[in-house]
Each structure stands twice: as structure tokens, then as C-alpha cells.
Design goal:
This protein has 741 residues and is of the alpha+beta class. Helix content is 67%, strand content 7%. The strands form 2 sheets. It has a 4-stranded antiparallel β-sheet with strand order 1-4-6-5. A hairpin with a 2-residue loop joins β5 and β6.
């Protein structure tokens, strides 16, 4: 008989088994999934920890000497695998309930981004100097130069304006001199007329007998009546009976000579006046154009964009005091005097009128001379009257006299001399100015001679040239790494202009750039500032006292005993800054640039101390001469003491290093500078930054045995629902970690 209760009891058992199996399978999968995700997390943490540990093996020498981080020489794969294995072993030992039992399957590491790459090197410099550079630069540089901003602005504006006006002024005056010279040369052609015509404003001619050959037109007129009577007397005689033939012949020969000479003189004067006065008119037009250019320059002088940097620095915040250098108003007033250099329009109009007047005067003279020449045929035929002959000679003589008095003779009536005197009144300060220009040029030549001596000294320092050649090879290798094969800047040091105006403009141009850069720094630090401060802090600069003997004129003899000071490692900053591949070129360049900066500051003082000279161009050259003389003194003081006062008006000391910091900043960042720094680092440490990595890319693979249903996990992994991969009963996790210094 069928037992219904027994049948139902079996169903429950099966149902419970099926239910338990489903639950067990679900829980088992959950356990393995939990273990897989735990392995992923742990592997990622291990990978990051291993990468960080790997980069802890940096080169200590680079850090200690230059504050730079780069991987050392230890095998990177060994460190990576050792750190990973030790961490996994520690996890096994410390686990109370070992759920993962993870094993290191494989690991690898790739070292990238060598320190010699510009972006990497710059990033480390920025990181090293991001706190120190802004403070040091603000205290040592900005706070020192901020009080001078306004007075240096006025100095720069004044040098710029007067420098431009001086060139145009001298050009204009040279053209005016050439203009007068053309007028004078043309006028002198009329002077030859005085040998043909008598010089007298009230000429009176009396009758004279023919005696020999007449030499002047006055002789012709005075002897004409006698000549005419002899001609008429001989006409009434037979040919063989004529007695005045010789006298008549002499008279006619003289007349022919005089009329021929007069004709040539008139033609010569006409051609010379036509060409010379045309040149004079062109020159006067150019003078007028130059004068207008000067007006425009004066009107635009207050609109220079370079002023913005000075104003920004002056108005910006600083940690210094509120003091400032006075004198900017006095210097600004010098520019107000610049209009005195302009020629009045009416003076230019007077010159034009005088040129036209000279041409008209010659036309009148030519007309009267033509009237006289028209008498030639009548005189030869003795058909003219004595009164007519005397009249044309007297009239022509009077015109010659008037012309010569106006344009040739010395005296108050000479128009050209009066014009020259008028110009001299406008040029009353020019002689003194020219003397000061010569003095300033001579002083600049003295300063330039120092550079020449430095350049010549390199020939006696050949033992150090090999070091610079080695640096050059390192430099080229680094440029190649950065895909730039261009060479260093040059092989010779800078030179100084021996023209005081050009030297002054160069000096103020550098100051414009400097204050423009300071303005940018005050609104936010730049890589240029980070780099300049890094170089000043980590590299060696030249012992400027070495130049003391040379600056005092002792020659190069004593310097030879100090030749080791010209080794590359004694002038690293200068080499980085200028990049000249010889022992003295960089020192010469630094000397020249310091001199230029001192010239700018001292010229500012010169303006204030010569403000009452009266003529703006005289004030300019006086200020430049003062600046050159004081700048030379400053160079001697710097070599002796190692520092100099910023200005007579600010007794803050600036060291040689401070100047180099300014120039490093002034020149701005450059890729070549980075390569030179890296070359020195390689030379000093023997470590090639081009081969030392700063970035690690680590890859780690770990594995563990799955406890339940690996097939299910593999199926889920194949459809993308699972990170990692399943091979057999093992689950593998791949992780990557990138770290850099």
C-alpha cells in the first residue's frame, strides 16, 4: 500500500538539498569574488608601494650638491621584485586567517624621463625653488630697485628722447652746413668777375687813350672813344696809308678776350648756381623734414611702452620701506627743454628766401652782363657810342658789386655769413658738447680696453680650454637628446660701444627690460626667476677680486699667477649665463654687462647733477660722461671690495653675485642655459643626467588559487564582467603604477 507520508518526506529532503546547493554555490562564488577583489586591491597597493620604494633609491650626490632627484645605479628590477616579495611574505606571516595566499607571479619596471630632458629638469628646479626664490628675489632684488623705479623711468625716457634727437640734430646741422657750403661755392664763381669789372658801387669812367691790350671791361669803356676815333680816321685813308692799325688791333684783341672770358664766367656761374642751389633747396627740404621728425618724436616721447614696467614696479607691494630716490621731476623737466633744439619755421622760410634771392641776384647780374656782351659786335665795328659802352659796364659792375657784397665779401651785409652766424647762435653749446663727447668716448675706450685685455688673456690659459671643450661636448649631447642640435652662443666676449650715446641707449634698454621683468615677477613668479635663483644658489661664480690688478692697469702679469681662477669650476654661473666656450669670454661678458648697468644708474645721477647746464643735449652728454667715469670707478671698487653701493642716493650694497642674479633674470630662461647647467652637473659629479631616470613605470602580476567554481569565474571574465584573468584554477591580477620625483 502506497505510504503518502513517506513520499512527502523525501520531497522535502530533495528540496532542502537543492536549496542548500544553490545557496552554497552562490556563497562560494561570493567568497571567491571577494577574494579576487581583495587581491586586486592588495596588488594595486603593493604596486604603488613598490614603485615608491624603487624611487627611494635616488642618487644622494645629486640631491646634496644640486637638490635634484634621479634614480641611482641599483638594479631597478631587483628592488621592485624584492619589495613585492617581502610584502607578500609579511602578509602571509601576519594573516590569522589566510584567505588570499597570493603569490608574486611576475614584476617589471621601466625607467623613463631622464633628468636631462628640459621639461623634467625645469620641473625639478621649480619644485626646489618654489618657496625660496620668491622670498630671496623680493628681498634682495625687488626691494632694492623699487625705490629707483620712477627716477629710472624718467632717465630712460630722457635718454631715449635726447638720444634720438641728438642723431637727428647732428644730421640736420650737417645738412645746413652743406646747404650754406653749396651757396658759398656757387657764389664764389662770381668772384672771377672782379678781374673783368671794377669793384665800385659808384663807378665813374673817364676817357683814356688806347695803350696796349685792354685787360678789363673798364679799360674797354674808357679807351673806346679813342679807339672809335682811330677807326674812323683810318677808314678815310687808303689801306697803305692807315697809321692806327696796331693800336686798333690791340684794342680789338683785348675786347675779344674780355668778352670771351665774361661769357665763360657767366656760363660757369649759371651752371654752378643752377646745380648748387638745386642741391641747397633739396637739403633745405630734408632739413625741414628732419625738423618735423624731431617734433613728432618730442610729442610721442611720453607714450613709451617701456614706462609700464617702471610704473608697475613702483606701484607694486614690497616688503621694503617707503623711501624712493628723488630727482624724477628734475629729469622730466630736461625733456621739456627739448623743443629748444627745433628750428623755427620762419628761420627755415628765411633760408628758402635767401636761396631764391641768390638765384634772382644772379639772374639780374646775368642780364646786365648779357647787355654788356651784346655790345661786342658794335664795339668791334666801332659803331656804338662811348656813353652806351660806359653805361653797360657801369651797370654790370654795380651788379657784380652788389652780388659779391651779399654772398662773397666778409662783412655784415653778407647774407650767407649772417645765416651762418644765426646757426651758430642756435649751436652755442655745440663746441662744449663735442668736447664732452670726445672725453666720454675716450673713457669708454678705456673701459673697452679692459675687455680686450681679458680676451687676450685666454691665449695664456690654454690649460683650461680642454675643460671648456669637454663641457661643449656634453652640451651638444644634451641638445641632441632634446632634439636641438644648435651650438653654443659664441666664442668671444661682448664689446662695449665707444659712442657715448649708443652706450647710454644700450644701458637704458637693458634697464627697461629689467624693470619689465620685475613687473612680471611681482604679478607671479616665472621659470626665469626660478632658474636664475637656482643657478645663483647651486653653482660657483668667479672671484671678481682676480680682476683688481687688471683694472688698476697692472697688466696681465699678476693675473697669470691667479690663472686657476679662470678654470670652468670657478666661473660656473658666468658660463651658464653667457655660454662662451673659453676661459675668459664669460668673465669679459659679465664685466661688460655690469659696466652697462652701472652706466645706466650713474647716468641717472648725472642728469640730476647737471640739470642746470642749459641745453638738453649738453645735459645728456654731461650725464653720460659722468656715468662713464663713475661706472669705471665702480668696477674698480667692485673688484677691490666685492660690492658697490647701488647709487649715490641709495647706499645699499650690491655684490658681484647680486649683479649676476640680475643678469640671469634679465636674460630670461633658455634651453641652452638648461643644457649648460646639465653639462656642469655632469662634469662635477661624473653623473650623466641624460641617462638618469626620474620616472618609474612598474608592472606587477600576482596570482591566487580559486577555491570554488573557477569555471564560473572564467566564464564571467570572458564576457568582461571580471577584472583580471583565470587560467585553470588560478586567478591572475595585472596592475601598473607610475611614479616620478
Amino acid at each position: 500500500m502506497f505510504n503518502r507520508d513517506r513520499s512527502e518526506n523525501g520531497a522535502v529532503t530533495i528540496f532542502l538539498i537543492v536549496t542548500f546547493t544553490a545557496i552554497f554555490t552562490f556563497v562560494a562564488i561570493f567568497i571567491d569574488f571577494a577574494r579576487m577583489y581583495a587581491l586586486q586591491t592588495k596588488t594595486e597597493a603593493l604596486t604603488h608601494a613598490a614603485a615608491r620604494s624603487l624611487l627611494s633609491a635616488f642618487d644622494k650626490e645629486l640631491v646634496e650638491q644640486y637638490g635634484l632627484f634621479a634614480y641611482g645605479e641599483t638594479d631597478e628590477n631587483y628592488i621592485m621584485s624584492k619589495v613585492l616579495q617581502d610584502n607578500l611574505d609579511l602578509a602571509v606571516r601576519s594573516d590569522d586567517l589566510p584567505l588570499l595566499r597570493a603569490k608574486l607571479d611576475s614584476s617589471s619596471v621601466e625607467l623613463l624621463r631622464p633628468l636631462g630632458i628640459y621639461s623634467v629638469f625645469e620641473s625639478q628646479i621649480r619644485e626646489e625653488m618654489k618657496y625660496k626664490a620668491p622670498i630671496d628675489f623680493a628681498i634682495d632684488i625687488i626691494n632694492r630697485f623699487k625705490p629707483m623705479a620712477q627716477v629710472m623711468k624718467e632717465t630712460s625716457n630722457t635718454v631715449d628722447l635726447l638720444g634720438k634727437l641728438q642723431k637727428l640734430y647732428d644730421k640736420r646741422e650737417a645738412k645746413l652746413d652743406e646747404l650754406l657750403d653749396n651757396q658759398k661755392k656757387a657764389a664764389l664763381t662770381v668772384e672771377s668777375f672782379s678781374s673783368l669789372l671794377p669793384r665800385s658801387p659808384s663807378l665813374s669812367l673817364s676817357d683814356e687813350s688806347v695803350s696796349g691790350i685792354p685787360r678789363t671791361a673798364a679799360d674797354l669803356a674808357s679807351q673806346y672813344a679813342d679807339y672809335q676815333s682811330m677807326v674812323e680816321a683810318d677808314r678815310e685813308r687808303e689801306l697803305l696809308e692807315r697809321v692806327h692799325g696796331m693800336s686798333i688791333g690791340f684794342y680789338q684783341l683785348g675786347a675779344s678776350n674780355i668778352f670771351s672770358e665774361a661769357g665763360r664766367s657767366i656760363m660757369n656761374a649759371q651752371v654752378k648756381h643752377r646745380d648748387s642751389l638745386a642741391n641747397a633747396r633739396n637739403l633745405l627740404s630734408e632739413v625741414s623734414e628732419i625738423n618735423e621728425q624731431m617734433k613728432v618724436i618730442i610729442e610721442q616721447s611720453e607714450q613709451r611702452s617701456a614706462q609700464d614696467g617702471y610704473n608697475s614696479v613702483s606701484e607694486g607691494q614690497s616688503t621694503g620701506g617707503k623711501e624712493s630716490v628723488v630727482g624724477n621731476q628734475e629729469i622730466a623737466k630736461i625733456r621739456e627743454q627739448s623743443r629748444s633744439l627745433l628750428l623755427p619755421d620762419d628761420l627755415i622760410a628765411d633760408f628758402k628766401s635767401d636761396i631764391d634771392g641768390q638765384a634772382l641776384q644772379l639772374t639780374q647780374l646775368q642780364s646786365e652782363m648779357s647787355s654788356m656782351l651784346a655790345e661786342e659786335s658794335s664795339i668791334m665795328s666801332a659803331s656804338s657810342s662811348s656813353g652806351s659802352m660806359k653805361s653797360v659796364v657801369v651797370t654790370a659792375s654795380r651788379e657784380v658789386e652788389v652780388f659779391l657784397q651779399k654772398y662773397v665779401d666778409h662783412g655784415s651785409s653778407n647774407i650767407l655769413e649772417e645765416n651762418a652766424a644765426t646757426l651758430e647762435r642756435y649751436r652755442s653749446y655745440d663746441n662744449e658738447r663735442k668736447q664732452l663727447e670726445n672725453q666720454a668716448g675716450a673713457k669708454l675706450k678705456d673701459a673697452s680696453n679692459i675687455l680686450t685685455q681679458l680676451k687676450e688673456l685666454k691665449n695664456k690659459l690654454s690649460q683650461y680650454q680642454e675643460q671648456f671643450d669637454q663641457l661643449e661636448s656634453y652640451f651638444s649631447e644634451n641638445r641632441t637628446l632634446n632634439q636641438d642640435a644648435s651650438s653654443a652662443e659664441g666664442t668671444e666676449g661682448s664689446s662695449l660701444s665707444q659712442d657715448p650715446y649708443d652706450a647710454g641707449e644700450d644701458a637704458m634698454g637693458s634697464m627697461d627690460t629689467f624693470y619689465g621683468g620685475l613687473s612680471g615677477v611681482m604679478s607671479g613668479m616665472s621659470d626665469s626667476c626660478f632658474q636664475s635663483e637656482y643657478i645663483a644658489n647651486y653653482f660657483q661664480y668667479f672671484d671678481v677680486s682676480t680682476l683688481d690688478e687688471l683694472l688698476k692697469g697692472s697688466g696681465t702679469g699678476k693675473l697669470e699667477a691667479l690663472s686657476e681662477q679662470f678654470a670652468y669650476d670657478k666661473q660656473e654661473v658666468e658660463y651658464i649665463l653667457y655660454g662662451f666656450n673659453n676661459p675668459t669670454g664669460n668673465i669679459a661678458a659679465a664685466y661688460g654687462e655690469i659696466f652697462t648697468m652701472r652706466l645706466a644708474i650713474r647716468t641717472m645721477e648725472g642728469f640730476i647733477k647737471n640739470v642746470n647746464k642749459g641745453n638738453p643735449l649738453l645735459i645728456l652728454v654731461s650725464a653720460l660722461l659722468y656715468g662713464v667715469e663713475k661706472a669705471i670707478e665702480d668696477m674698480v671698487t667692485l673688484a677691490q671690495k666685492g660690492s658697490i653701493p647701488l647709487s649715490d642716493f641709495m647706499k645699499i650694497e650690491l655684490t658681484y653675485k647680486d649683479h649676476l642674479r640680475i643678469f640671469l633674470f634679465l636674460h630670461g630662461r633658455s634651453d641652452k642655459r638648461l643644457s649648460r647647467m646639465l653639462s656642469i652637473i655632469r662634469m662635477e659629479t661624473g653623473i650623466n643626467p641624460d641617462e638618469r631616470a626620474t620616472y618609474a613605470k612598474g608592472e606587477v602580476t600576482t596570482a591566487m588559487t580559486l577555491w570554488f567554481l573557477p569555471g564560473v569565474a572564467k566564464a564571467m571574465g570572458s564576457v568582461g564582467a571580471l577584472n583580471g584573468r583565470v587560467e585553470g584554477s588560478r586567478y591572475y591580477v595585472d596592475k601598473q603604477a607610475d611614479f616620478s620625483y
